[in-house]
Amino acid sequence: MDPSGDRHDDDKIATTVEKPERGPDDASVPLKPVALGHQPAPEGVEKHEPAVMVEGDAARDDIPYSIFNAWEKRFIVLLVAVGSFFSPVSANIYFPALNTLAHEYRVSSTLINLTITMYMIFQGLAPSFTGSLSDSVGRRPVYILCFVIYIGANIGIALQHQFAALMVLRCLQSSGSSGTIAIGNAVVSDVASPAERGAYIGYVSLGAVVGVSLGATMGGILSDFLGWRSIFWFLVICAGVVAVLIALFFPETARAVVNNGSTRPQAWNLSLWDLLPSTERRRATAPTTGGRAKARGFVNPFMTLRICADKEASIVLLANGIIFAGYSALGSAIPSQFQALYGFDDLHIGLCFIPVGVSAAISAIIVGHVVDWNFARHARRLGISVAEAKQMNRDLGSFPIESVRCEVALPMLALASVSFIVYGWLLSYGTSVAGPLVMLFFIGFGVNGVFTMLSVLMVDVYPQAPATATAATNLVRCWLGAGASAVVVPMVGAMSSGWAYTFIALVFLLMAPLLWVVMRWGPRWRAERIAAEKARESSGRGEEA
After folding, report:
1. Which residue stretches does the UniProt record annotate as biased composition, category Basic and acidic residues (predicted)?
2. Which one has a higher pLDDT value, 183 or 421?
3. How far is CA 218 from CA 93, 214, 222, 352, in A?
4. pLDDT at residue number 40
5. Most distant CA pair in the chain, distance
6. Is 380 or 409 the better-scoring residue by pLDDT?
7. How many other CB atoms are there within 10 angstroms of residue 282's CB atom?
8. Second label for 165, Cα 20 to 30 Å away, from 130, 284, 362, 445?
9. pTM
10. What is the pLDDT of residues 41-65, one digit of tens each?
């Protein structure tokens, strides 16, 4: 149900845009938003301002949201999706080899699981720096920096022979790979308007979820046939190929650097795409707001904490983090549980992750298109055409973007919760392995549907700093996931699989009322925050004058 007011059809506010008036010199007069059909709201019903679609010259309909065409956007998103593959694959490719590593280093399973916990801590922390840096200096150079760190860490892990070195290098590996997740969603925000953003972020998350599934499978195969060190040489080769592709072909997209793509980046930040004559011609003729968007003067990793403290963002982050924590706990427990129950070796444990990855990939594609359909539905309800919606200003005004995203997330949350309960009791009763594997399929579909929606929503409500907003998502998710990964095995031992996963599912369901709160009051909180930010900017300009 849409809490923004579907029950009061007489209170709907339709918004359209005046067509440009032609003066004697045939010049267009800047567009202005016009609210149609505005009637007083019934007593006790919150009033909403019209959904603002344009804002001065920066949002005129002759200025495209991005100068990249559809095929270029797809190519950019493809590179981003491949880049997003490495953080989750590095975490999950490691799972099937946990028992082997514990034996080789002569440490307990609890201690070897600590390497997973530390990986996830840095997976949450590092994007606070790389996200803020990419919002300031650009996406492309930070991508390249992340891959250099990541490749170096993998070489070190493949060559080391001490547990302490493994722990330190896993932290460095996590720092290099996790930055690509934050930057990936930011790139989508750079090139795709809110109306088409759901499908594109779905494709980006597809790279991550394929990493989750194929990582464990590939890790099992490599560890079983070539030894666990081959896992990290494999990652070195794959990351090296992707790093070269990004360095050569990935264009800068950060709006603080290239605006909507119509501004040429600095000479040191040029890709081969920037040097094409067709690109130069398009930039010369493309309408632009003039110059680069205002960038922050310094890298501020504490911006992530400021986002976490915001009312709306904190609820979205908590819901996303709790779901991710349960998902991480499940993945961390699979190796020990399936070895104990079914006697599986590294290879067979890796194969058990395939249902999760397949369903997550299907979810990323389907849910992304469903949420874009839901965006168009809400736009039509407000009298906004799809074409106009695609050109909407990055400031969504009072457009109910929270309802657009959460209406899709809630059914996915319910599916994941029910699947967790059934999965846990199937393990408790020691059924055939087919039962838990089927439930893993539905868990992957539901959980990744929630991830996609809440990740898109964070980018929507913080369009001026999408990488930093995604870094906040990563910080909360990974730190909660690190804690869950550390306690899940003792919890299953104390409570049994059935009650442990039932408890996780009940915690999931507690997130549903929180998402309803975001749908109900999120637009008002977002408007208040934007107004406060504009007031601070105006005050700062006044002091400078």
Report:
1. 1-25
2. 421
3. 6, 6, 6, 12
4. 40
5. 85
6. 409
7. 15
8. 130
9. 0.69
10. 434 434 444 333 333 344 455 677 7
Is a pLDDT exceeding 90 seen at residue 101?
no
* Pick from 49, 364, 55: nearest CA to 201: 364
Domains of the chain in start order, with CATH, are: 70-271+301-544 (1.20.1250.20)
CB 374 within 8 A of CB 495: no
| Nearest in space to 323 (alpha carbons), one of 105, 514, 108, 38 | 514
At which residue do the structure tokens 């809630």 appear?
Answer: 410
- The answer to whether residues 325 and 483 touch, using CB atoms and an 8 Å cutoff, is yes
Give 333's pLDDT tier (boundaries 50, 70, 90): confident
DSSP string, 313-381: HHHHHHHHHHHHHHHHHHHHHHHHHHHHHH---HHHHHHTTHHHHHHHHHHHHHHHHHHHHHHHHHHHH
Query: Distance between CA atoms of 194 and 456, rounded to whole angstroms?
Result: 9
For 103-147, the DSSP string reads: HHHT--HHHHHHHHHHHHHHHHHHHHHHHHHHHHH-HHHHHHHHH
pLDDT of the residue at 523: 86
Higher local confidence (pLDDT), 430 or 442: 442
Phi/psi at 264 (5° precision): -75, 130
Rounded distance, CA 440 to CA 426, Å? 11
**CA–CA distance, 337 with 255 (Å, rounded to integer):** 47
Residue with tokens 């949201």: 65
pLDDT at 33: 40
What is the Cα–Cα distance from 33 to 15, expressed in whole angstroms? 7
- Are 457 and 402 within 8 A, CB to CB? yes
Q: What is the 3-state secondary structure (H, E, C) of 391-453?
A: CCCCCCCCCCHHHHHHHHHHHHHHHHHHHHHHHHHHHHCCCCCHHHHHHHHHHHHHHHHHHHH
Helix, strand, coil in percent for the chain, rounding step 5: 75, 0, 25
Average confidence (pLDDT) over 376-387: 80
How distant, in Å, are the alpha carbons of 349, 353, 370 from that of 340?
A: 11, 17, 40
More confident residue, 394 or 498: 498
Which residues make beta-bridge pairs with 59? none
Residue 395's pLDDT is what?
53
> Distance (Å, rounded) from C-alpha 477 to C-alpha 317?
8
DSSP category for residue 289: -
Distance CA 240, CA 83 (A): 11
Instruction: Give the Å distances, CA to CA, from 399 to 14, 227, 403.
Output: 11, 54, 9
Report the percent of the chain where pLDDT is more than 90: 23
* pLDDT at position 23 over 70: no
Yes or no: say if 150 and 86 are a contact pair by the CB < 8 Å rule.
Answer: yes
In whole angstroms, give the CA distance from residue 303 to residue 19. Answer: 39
* Residue 151's pLDDT band (cuts 50, 70, 90): very high
Query: What CA–CA distance (Å, rounded) separates 510 from 313?
Result: 17
The DSSP element (H or E) to which 307 belongs, if any, is helix 303-309
Output the CA angle 288-294-300, nearest 5 degrees: 145
**Tokens encoding 160:** 């080391």
